Structures are given as C-alpha cells and as structure tokens.
Hints:
Structural class: alpha+beta
Number of domains: 1
Radius of gyration: 14 Å
Largest sheet: 7 strands, mixed
Strand content: 25-35%
CATH class: Alpha Beta
CATH architecture: 3-Layer(aba) Sandwich
Number of strands: 7
CATH superfamily: Gcn5-related N-acetyltransferase (GNAT)
Distance between the termini: 29 Å
Oligomer: single chain
Number of helices: 4
Strand order of the largest sheet: 1-2-3-4-5-7-6
Amino acid sequence: MLIRQALPADMAEAYAIEAISYPPETAASREAFDYRLQTFGRYFKVAEHNGQVVGIANAVRLSHENLADEKMKQTGASDPEGQFLCVLTVAVHPDYRGSGLGVRLMSALLKQAEEDRLEAVLLLCEKHLISFYERLGFQYIRSSASEHGGIPWHEMKRDCR
C-alpha cells in the first residue's frame, strides 16, 4: 500500500470514496476537491493499492482556529499562508476499512504539517471518532458550533510545535 500526494488523475476515484463515505449533506463537492488539490496539494494524500485509490485525506490551511466557518469546507475561508492545518476528509474505501489506512493517511498529513512548521492541526469529527483521533495525539477541545449537515461535531487539536 502506497501513501502519496494526490494527482489530478486521482480525483474521480478520490471523490467516489468521499461520496460513499459521507452522507450527501456532509460530503464535499467535486469542485471543493479540485480546489483543495490545486491550492493545498501537499495536504491531499491518497492511499493506492494495485493502481487504485483506496483511501484519501485532505486538509486546508487556515489563519484562524474557527472551525464553525462553513465556507472552509468548500472553497473559501482558507489561507495558503495560514499556520493551522484543518483536516477536512479522511476516508477509506469500505473494502479496506480496519486495515490501518486511516492512521497512515493521517500520519502523512501530520508529518507534512510538522515539516512545514505549522502551529497546529485542527479537525471536526463525530463523537464515535474522538478516541481514534486521541490515539493520534489530538486533544478534545469542545463541542463545535458547526452544524454542517445537521450533525453534532466535536473540535480537536494537535500541536505541531
């Protein structure tokens, strides 16, 4: 299994994984995926197996820690020079779930954030994923004001410095 930077040729497969992993009301748009790759390509990772994309993780940089800003989930409110990395998608094809790919994808994002000397990595997650992110060194911050997709979200943070 290879973890690597995403390429434009990966976007159809990457978006298909997004679409089967998240409910339609919370999934990013294809336009958002294209924007993330073009603007924050170093933070768009894919897991490849036998030439197919089987997992994805992507993030954008922010100049603030306000995770309730709905625009950042699509194409706005990000900052290519921001000191915070906000993880927006971690998804693995159903046939590969439970194989540790989510951890490997997140580890690749964390490593990139540390290499880039960012201040912290931030994310929103559902309640059942809090312990997953805690095992990766994230700290629980609070219940989020975000109501994206009508789901209760929880804010988490991991310092890079």
